[in-house]
Design goal:
The complex is a heterodimer of chains A (306) and B (652). Chain A is mainly alpha-helical. Helix content of chain A is 71%, strand content 1%. Chain A has one domain. By secondary structure, chain B is mainly alpha-helical. Chain B is built from 22 helices and five strands. In chain B, strand 1 and strand 2 form a beta hairpin. In chain B, helix 6 packs across helix 8, helix 7 runs antiparallel to helix 10 and helix 9 packs antiparallel against helix 13. Chain B is globular and about 90 Å long. The chains are: A mainly alpha (306), B mainly alpha (652). At the A-B interface, strand 1, helix 3, helix 4, helix 5 and helix 9 of A face helix 14, helix 15, helix 16, helix 19 and strand 3 of B.
Chain lengths: 306, 652
């Protein structure tokens, strides 16, 4: 239990670092030196030191948005096995709770954006409300896959111990589909290219960034921290999926986990540097691909597991 | 049962007193509110006590020396009674300040009377123990709610809505009569005791007939057409009762018939899940397309009926595939959602009622920024919205969690049950996501941002009883969401009355699931409070100032530029275009200095659209051909009756 809490805190504290890896990769592809790897910590500290300006249109909901979106991201990490360790909290069905918790965070992010009366933020909110619907369907399809394979409904059963490795041995090809499907969900849920571009300059083309335009100071720091943790959450699942090896040598589990994380962040960075954002109306099709992949993966396993 | 009869007599007395003293406006309203709520409290306490005791109580009276009026209260009846009395109690309280239009005191008194009649008849429907009692109560329920729908009969659209509701409830009742006819043919009695002896084909026929009949009351797609017309027409506390509990009598009927038939046919489960999936997804897509806040809530009821049906279907599949855990999870999740939906939907209708009462408009795009001046209404509406989206730590999540757990049990099955379970789970997920889009839209457009028109400017909230009723419901949503354990034990005794063939349902595994929900809810609350504390610590010495919203460089923004409800939903509606055709109407912009233009959009309900060419016109065609029978000559009419009786004597 103690160990798990330490890992949870460690995950929160290192999440900003990993996000900076993406920036480094993008800088490398752009032929630039790029910001230091600790840039996100500097940003967070800078934001926490500042005060805030609130729009006269806003209400208390605007202030609740950052708090709840950050808290739900932190809560999601509580249920996640980090480097194969048992998570802080785990029970049968916790996966559903976590997905709905992220939904709670989204509700308040959208509500905070709608609070400002800004047409741009409304536009971002409408997109934020739309794309995750398909993501949620794909997520549940992946859950169905995992339930079919393991008969369990908790992250601990999927990603701690040797569970994942056994899965690869039974149903490797279908799991490959799941990895790709999950990567698409990661990209969509965390607002990365090709669904959303965190570095774009035009408000009209933004999703997540435009929704937080009016937040400033510590409020904005909470939003950023929540976003880092959310990305970490998805990346950690993927890391558990792609490098599920259990060597038995103490410490290597953690190293493998970090290596997996770095791979995920590298890939996100490479994609972000090499392809452009999709047109908004193409995004639903892109996200639907992940549902289709997860669906096929489940169908394939029908023959394997009887 | 004596407590039950005392309670409904008290409620009826409230209605009669309100009618007798119709001219004394305040007294009439107060008497109705006090007597009805007192009766409801009495009935509620009695129902909950019966529910914890889990013993069947019954009573019978002779009626016209011909039939027996029989009543029976088992776990299932007691649970529905509790929900009915709870919501009606709060609606009665709410009505005191809501019906304060002293100019129409007689009309209000009449509405008070029919309201009491509706409560009584709903209570009788869920306790009826034979066909006569059931149909009698059912008809009183349909008729009294019809009179409530046409409360504002001066407006032609309300009369139309009432007419549509009248037709639908009676076509539905016709299917129920047919269903009871099938039962009577085989059992030869008006009682329900021997229904399980029917041959299999008759059982299937009866189930389908009852499903259509009850489905049209519950608002199952495509029999939901009356709902989005009738709910906006009725006064808001009536909409709360109709949407919160009256349509649930349809769910009660389906559950009751299922338990009476005792036929674990997998087909029933597939039918119910399919109806649930379609109602659920289309209900919420149409809800997204609405601009009238009460119409939107009515469509959202169709969606929630869909969720309840999905739960019931999972339960039925569990029974037919001999998976008791799945069966109990599915049924209990569905019954739990009945309670939860009653709570948050009546809360939302009451909140919408407050908005309509104060601003005088139901059009969402005319509102905005109400949260600043209507704090209690706004925040309880937000709580209701969070609950209806099924988000933790609110009650909607608790109910859906059980349905999910049941659905996932079906994933381990094979072939059709497996495929149906996939459909159930995925559509629950999609419904959840769409509901989130739908209710962030309502909250964002109506309560947040800036007022879009003068109607929404400087409005306050008034009426202590209205605010009190909403506060209680919002509190209930939170409490049930965090501590579902005790409520779930009540639900289990309702499920055990379903006669699923399991002697005793062990409480432990379900208490464990409820415990997990509590744990999850508490974790969220602790983390949110922790982060909030961290936030206020960060702000302790910081300069905080106010300014306008950042206009992205544009310096002269107006409130008209805000995102509207239609634009918010546009992309999602486009995605569901085949099922939700979008009709747009606007004058194109032309020239260098374009003149003013207008834009209009409307989302069509395919059931409503195809009802006219598919049902109404063929029926009209046939009846046109039969018009010669109706000629107005009374002698011949008597002749028809005689002829019919003689023919019946020959054949029966």
């Amino acid at each position: 239990m103690f160990e798990s809490i330490v890992l949870w805190l460690g995950a929160i504290l290192t999440a900003p670092f990993f996000s900076a890896v993406i920036l480094k990769v993008k800088a490398f592809f752009g032929g630039k030196k790029g910001p230091p790897l600790l840039i996100n910590y500097y940003t967070l500290i800078k934001l926490v030191k500042k005060g805030s300006v609130y729009s006269t249109s806003t209400t208390a909901v605007f202030k609740m948005g950052p708090v709840i979106s950050c808290a739900t991201a932190l809560a999601a990490l509580l249920f996640l096995p980090i480097a194969g360790h048992i998570p802080v909290i785990s029970f049968n069905g916790d996966v559903i709770l976590v997905l709905y918790l992220l939904g709670l965070g989204r509700f308040f992010t959208i509500a905070a954006a709608m609070d400002t009366a800004s047409p741009f933020e409304g536009m971002g909110a409408a997109r934020e409300a739309f794309f995750p619907i398909i993501c949620e369907a794909a997520m549940f399809m992946i859950l169905i896959y995992f339930y079919r394979m393991t008969g369990e409904l908790s992250f601990a059963a999927y990603f701690s111990g040797t569970g994942t490795l056994a899965l690869w041995q039974i149903a490797g090809p279908s799991l490959l589909f799941i990895v790709i499907a999950f990567f698409i969900i990661l990209v969509t849920e965390t607002s990365r290219v090709p669904v959303d571009d965190p570095a774009t300059h035009l408000e009209l083309t933004m999703i997540h960034e435009v929704m937080v335009l009016d937040h400033s100071g510590p409020d904005f720091a909470l939003i950023e921290l929540g976003a880092f943790c959310k990305l970490f959450f998805y990346a950690a699942i993927l890391s558990g999926l792609i490098l599920p090896f259990e060597t038995g040598i103490p410490g290597t589990g953690m190293l493998l986990f970090i290596a997996g994380l770095l791979i995920v962040y590298l890939v996100v960075g490479i994609i972000e540097s090499t392809i452009a954002r999709y047109r908004m109306d193409k995004v639903p099709q892109f996200v639907l691909t992940s549902f289709a992949l997860a669906f096929f993966a489940t169908i394939i396993t029908l023959e394997l597991i009887q | 049962m004596s407590h039950f009869f005392a309670a409904i007599s008290l409620i009826l007395a409230g209605g009669v007193v309100s009618l007798v003293f119709a001219r004394q406006h305040v007294f009439s309203r107060a008497a109705a509110a006090i007597l009805i709520s007192a009766g409801c409290t009495w009935g509620l306490v009695d129902a909950v006590i019966k529910l914890t005791g889990a013993v069947t109580h019954s009573a019978a009276f002779q009626y016209l020396n011909l039939f027996f009026l029989a009543f029976e209260m088992d776990g299932l009846s007691a649970f529905f009674l509790a929900v009915i009395f709870l919501v009606c109690l709060l609606a009665a309280v709410y009505s005191f300040h809501y019906m304060d239009d002293s100019g129409s005191s007689v009309k209000n008194a009449v509405t008070g009377f029919f309201f009491s009649l509706l409560v009584v008849s709903m209570a009788m429907v869920v306790t009826a123990a034979n066909m006569i009692t059931f149909m009698l109560s059912w008809e009183i329920m349909s008729l009294s709610s019809f009179f409530l729908v046409i409360h504002n009969y001066q407006q032609v659209e309300n009369r139309k809505a009432g007419y549509l509701y009248f037709v639908f409830s009676h076509v539905g009742a016709m299917f129920l009569f047919a269903g009871f006819g099938v039962l009577y043919k085989y059992t030869g009695s008006f009682g329900f005791a021997d229904v399980h002896t029917l041959p299999e084909a008759a059982k299937t026929l009866a189930f389908v007939l009852f499903f259509i009949g009850f489905g049209s009351k519950a608002g199952v797609f495509p029999f939901h057409v009356w709902l989005p017309h009738a709910h906006p027409a009725a006064p808001s506390h009536i909409s709360a009762v109709m949407s919160g509990v009256m349509i649930k009598t349809g769910i009660y009927g389906i559950l009751r018939i299922y338990s009476l038939l005792e036929m674990p046919s997998p087909g029933f489960g597939y039918l119910v899940v399919a109806a649930g999936v379609v109602s659920g997804i289309l209900g919420v897509v149409y809800a997204l397309g609405q601009t009238d806040i009460k119409r939107l809530l009515a469509y959202s009821s169709v969606e929630n009926i869909g969720i309840i049906l999905i739960g019931m279907g999972i339960g039925m599949i569990g029974v037919s595939s001999r998976n008791p855990l799945m069966a109990v999870l599915g049924f209990s999740g569905a019954i739990f959602h009945v309670l939860n939906h009653a709570m948050f939907k009546s809360l939302l209708f009451m909140g919408a009622g407050m908005v309509v009462h104060q601003t005088g408009t139901r059009s969402m795009d005319a509102l905005g920024g109400l949260l600043k001046s209507m704090k209690i209404t706004g925040f309880s509406f937000i709580i209701g919205s969070l609950a209806i989206c099924g988000l933790p730590p609110f009650n909607g999540f608790a109910g859906e969690f059980f349905i999910y757990m049941g659905g996932f049990k079906g994933i381990s099955l094979d072939k059709i049950p497996f495929a149906v379970s996939i459909a159930a789970i995925i559509s629950l997920a999609v419904i959840g996501g769409l509901a989130l889009a739908c209710f962030t839209r309502v909250v964002g457009i109506v309560f947040q941002g800036e007022p879009r028109t003068d109607a929404a400017r400087n409005q306050t909230e008034t009426g202590a009883t209205m605010l009190g009723a909403m506060g209680v419901l919002a509190g209930a949503c939170v409490i049930i969401g965090i501590f579902p354990g005790w409520f779930f034990s009540l639900i289990l005794s309702a499920v055990s009355a379903l006669n699923l063939g399991y002697e005793r349902i062990p409480a432990a595994p379900f208490a464990q699931i409820a415990g997990h929900i509590t744990l999850g809810a508490l974790v969220v609350i602790v983390l949110v409070l922790g982060v909030a504390a961290l936030r206020s610590w960060c702000y302790r010495t910081k300069p905080v100032s106010q300014s306008g919203t950042w206009g992205c460089g544009f310096t002269r923004p107006t409130t008209k530029m805000q995102y509207t409800g239609s634009s918010y939903a546009f992309d999602i509606i486009q995605f569901f275009r085949p099922a939700a055709p979008l009709e747009e109407n606007h004058v194109p912009i032309a020239g260098r200095f374009p003149a003013g233009t207008r834009y209009e959009s409307r989302v069509h309900d395919i059931a409503e659209r195809y009802m006219e060419p598919g049902v109404v016109r063929p029926v009209q065609f046939i009846f046109d051909r039969l018009r010669w029978i109706q000629h107005g000559d009374i002698h011949l009419y008597i002749g028809y009756i005689l002829l019919a009786i003689v023919l019946l004597l020959f054949f029966v």
